[in-house]
Structure formats: structure tokens, C-alpha cells
Amino acid sequence: MSEDQREPLSEYRRRRAAANRLQGEERRQEKLASLRARNELVRDFVALSLRRSLRSAGDDRDALGWFWFNHFNVFWGKGLVGAALPSYVEDAIRPNALEQFRDLLLATMLHPAMLVYLDNERNTVGKTNENYARELLELHTLGVNGGYSQADVQETARVLTGFGLRSLRPIKWSAKEQGLVVERGEFLFNPRGHDFGDKRVLGQTIAGAGYSEAETLADLLVAHPATARHVAGRLCLFLVGDEPPQGVVDAAAKTFTSTRGNIASTVATIREAAKQDAGPSRSFKDPYRWVLSSLTLLAGGRAIEDVRPVMRWLRALGEPLYGCTTPDGYNLSGKHWLSAGQLTQRFEIAREMVGVLPRLLGQPVGCKDLLASDGVKRLVAQLGGPSSAALAAAPPCERLALMLSSPEFMYW
User: Fold this and answer.
1) CA-based nearest residue to 220, from 233, 204, 232, 234
2) 254-289: b (≥16 Cβ within 10 Å) or e
3) Do residues 322 and 46 make contact, with C-beta atoms less than 8 angstroms apart?
4) How far apart are CA 52 and CA 221, in angstroms?
5) Per-residue pLDDT tens over the stretch 350-370
6) How many CA atoms lie within 13 A of 389 on its CB side?
7) Would you put residue 203 in left (φ > 0), alpha (ψ -120 to 50) or beta?
8) Whole-structure pTM value
9) How many whole angstroms from its chain centre is CA 170?
10) What torsion do the CA atoms of 224, 152, 132, 253 make, to the nearest 10 degrees?
């Protein structure tokens, strides 16, 4: 973890430990204060992330940063995960978004946010916790139909015993233990909590060696054909749309395998294969995609700094940034989001977007001027007969809201 991103997590842990040494009301108040500080940190980081995404619309690293966070989802509301959120995104996810999947997998595997969210800091020899091991196989790598067994989950959990958080009290290590300890920021590999016996995962033996077992496990999982199929399928769903052609998924899986999990190459293959397919998929935009594309269209290249309404709109539509509580992340399928209630809310939010746009931009802007912008004119040219007829009779500001609510704009 970088020092700047690590500090909020270290401070949160120090405050909670100090609170535990207090008594009664003083203890309760200090714990509440630490939670308020954590929540404020998360709000500020969400705002920073949204401003960056709005500035870099169409940028692969930003878009795939969102995808990979969702793939390796953690929920900020669980304990110290919120304090670790900036580091998790900035140190583990974004730098690896277009690099090797192995590096991304290991970065999430060893990050305090993941270790706490899925309880691996409680995973010790003689008291194994399988929560993270199960999601590692089912969600992050092989997929639910990846061919692993309960025995594989148990053996994976054994590999990950002792992977947790730095102790807040000094530990006196023996000479033998000292050579096995790995401490990086708030992460600690504690040899006293590790099962040093050999493990058997997916038919392969992982010799008991300590910290390096995680690297061996990552290599094993990345090389497995099921991981290539699962990751390729998820990327295709995100980049191509609902029900991506099987040929595109197969081509992506082949590239993933041949490049040992190079993400940029896999993404390039998906885009090229999708161009060759005769029937490109159309998908209903999830709330995050719709809100960002709407604001990008309206802003026309101008910076949006006040993102407080954006955060509220995403909450109202059921997809707050970094707000999914379950480890499977938000559903990537457009069909999941298509409902009468969602459409009604979007129409109301579209009206509000148009109305508050001058405040978001920090400058006056008229609806007639927006209608004359190149992006809006391109959208108007794509509208079908019913949408064009609805727009024709509407005043300028209402016309903009109707465009954002049109079937043509709701799909990508």
C-alpha cells in the first residue's frame, strides 16, 4: 500500500484499539467518532472517484477499474474495510486493471480490505475459516461451475491460514519465525497462524512453505482453463453486452490462456472479435453507466465538480459506487436492471439532471445551447420515430430529459 492511502487504515485501527482501552460512555463515544471519520473518508473517496470517472469517460483504465472492483467486491461498511477502501482501489485495483490477472489477483488476495471483508484474518491453523477461500474459487477465478470441490475449498483455506493483519502490539519472534514473517503496511503473514502441511488443490500439491504458497496458489488458479472461461465471460458481458456471442468468449479465453492472463490483450481480443460478429448485443445500461453517460452528454466536455447529486441518484437507482454488500458485486446483465420502477425513476432523475446542471458545472448553461451541442445532435439523429415525435412537441429542457429517458439512450 502507498503511504498516503495506508494512513487512514492505520489511523482507524489505532483509534479503535485506543477506544477498547476506555470504559463506558467514553468508549462508546470514541468508537462512534472513529466510525464517523471512516464514513466521511468513504464519502470523500466516492466523490473523488466519481469526479475522475466523469473526467475520463471512455478511458479503459477507469472503466476496467470499476469492473475489477466489482469483480473483487468488498463492502466498505464492514469494520475497517471503509478505512482501507482508498488503498484497495488505488493500490490493488487501478494499477493492475490492464496488466496481468495474476498480479491483480494477488494484490486483492493480500489486501486488508479483502482479508477483513471475507474473514480471512480469522483463518488460522486449527481454526480454519473458509469464507474467502470459497469466494476466491467461485467468484474471483474458476467460477461457480469451475469444477472445484468442497475439499478444494478446504485445502485453499489451509493455504491462506496466517494471512491477516499486522498486530498492534509488538511480537517477539523466534529466530526461525523471523525468517518467515512477511509484513507490508497493515498486512501480516503470521507463521504462528499458518498450517505448514502440504495441501492438495485441484489435483496439484502445494508444498507447505509459508507466504509463498499464496503465489503458488495464484499461479495454479490463473493457469486453470476454468478461470480463463470465467474471466473471459465476465469481461465479455461488461464490454459486449448481454448474451455475448460464444465465439467472442472463446477467443477471449484463448488469449487469456496464451498470455497467462494479460488483461489488455484479452480486452483487445474481445473488441476485435466483437467487430467481426454479425449480431452485436444491445444491453440496457445499469444505473452507473446510465448516470455517467447522461452527465457526460450534458456536460459536453466541461468538468463536473459537485457530485453530491450524482451520489444520491446512484443510491436511488440501487447502484451506489462501492456500495454492494455481497461479494458477487453488482449484476452486470442489463436485463437485471430493466423494470418499470427503474424507468420511472430514471425519467424523474433525468429531469433533475437537466435542472441542476448549471450548479454541477458551476456556470450558467441553457437548454437551447445544450440541444445545439454536437453530442446531443448525434443522439437526436439516432432516435426512432416514436422518440422523435415525443421530443418534437416538448419545450427545450423537457426535450433533453426525454432524450436521456429514450429507449435509444437507455441501451448501449
Assistant:
1) 204
2) ebbbeeebbbebbbebbeebbeeeeeebebbbbbbb
3) yes
4) 33
5) 999 999 999 999 999 999 999
6) 3
7) left
8) 0.95
9) 34
10) 20
